[in-house]
Amino acid sequence: MIVGLTGGIGSGKSTVAKQFETLGIPVYESDGQAKTLMQSSKKIRKAIIEIIGKKAYVDKKLNTAYIAQKVFNNTELLAELNAIVHPAVRKHFLKWSKKQHSPYVIQENAIIFETGSQDFYDKIVLVTAPVDLRIRRVLKRDNTSKEDLLARMNNQLGDSEKIPLADYVIENIDLGKTKEKIEEIHRLLLEYS
User: What is the pTM of this model?
Assistant: First the structure.
């Protein structure tokens, strides 16, 4: 069984993913894997340079700050980039998932609903948190400006749009309550699988 784990930036997807891992569930972190593929695949690198330019890589290394600056205020360019990267990540994930030996696997993916890929999953877990808390978390964690963060948030659907589409919702404000909810969802997923 394939479970999607999603939520807006700063909602705490990684924290939730780590909790599922402590329960023995393999988690595929799409964002990190996408960066690895963007770095290692010559085919992807060539396609990215074609749409974004040579500055997308500096000394053969992915220039994430430059790419983010270019795409997060340009929805067409972001869609082009996603059309290059997402199919490669999906293919890599499916290969990875076949090697796992567990009742279910999780693919952590921030933009499941934004890309219309919810049909790839048997179940979807949505992580939510109030916007002001998400902003505080990201500004504390990342080397980014509030302006850049808000541009990224504007490219994601709001929680109110995602909640009706999700099978399970974890409001990630209090870690103790979050862990309880994860254990409850884990039990339900084991019954379902």
Answer: 0.90
